[in-house]
Specification:
heterodimer, A: mainly beta, 11 strands, 50% strand
Chain lengths: 114, 115
Amino acid sequence: EPEVTQTPSHQVTQMGQEVILRCVPISNHLYFYWYRQILGQKVEFLVSFYNNEISEKSEIFDDQFSVERPDGSNFTLKIRSTKLEDSAMYFCASNFRRTDGELFFGEGSRLTVL
Amino acid sequence: AQTVTQSQPEMSVQEAETVTLSCTYDTSESNYYLFWYKQPPSRQMILVIRQEAYKQQNATENRFSVNFQKAAKSFSLKISDSQLGDTAMYFCAFMKGLTGNQFYFGTGTSLTVIP
């Protein structure tokens, strides 16, 4: 069964460093998302991406964050200069139809900022 | 703004018994979807069940069913004949209909099925 895959599963970085989290969505999906979950808190929406552009983003997704789909298969989240409060589990998700409702999630990438 | 509240951080149930997980939400939208997602330990979140707000009939998927009370903005999940594989974190989620793009999640309920 097709799955959303994410790498790395865990990354430790120093504050101020750039981090790239990678995702391979399910191949025929058209909508792509990043969510994050700070330990003990809710899963929060960061950004959605469709047709090679951001379709919606939350207030969390500030100028330090960017997304791209460089090669038609990978979907990346870049954090330009990490802060301690960026430590969280980051989930990639995709779906075929936005209104279908069902999101297919990856296992998550745990980011620890020291 | 939409909010989703799960007031039970942890629950446990004996194998083969029935358990109900609570979820309430707040929205001014009239058209929306509600979901329960399951996240087993170290695995990805998967959809358990979905309910369209315009449907009065409660959704059912095998051993999983919901009690959707639109006026009360309540959306509980009932798991019948609980199995060890049901042990997981369960998230209630809301999505605005049609133009919806982002999901709003609750904080989750950690369910343990006891053999």
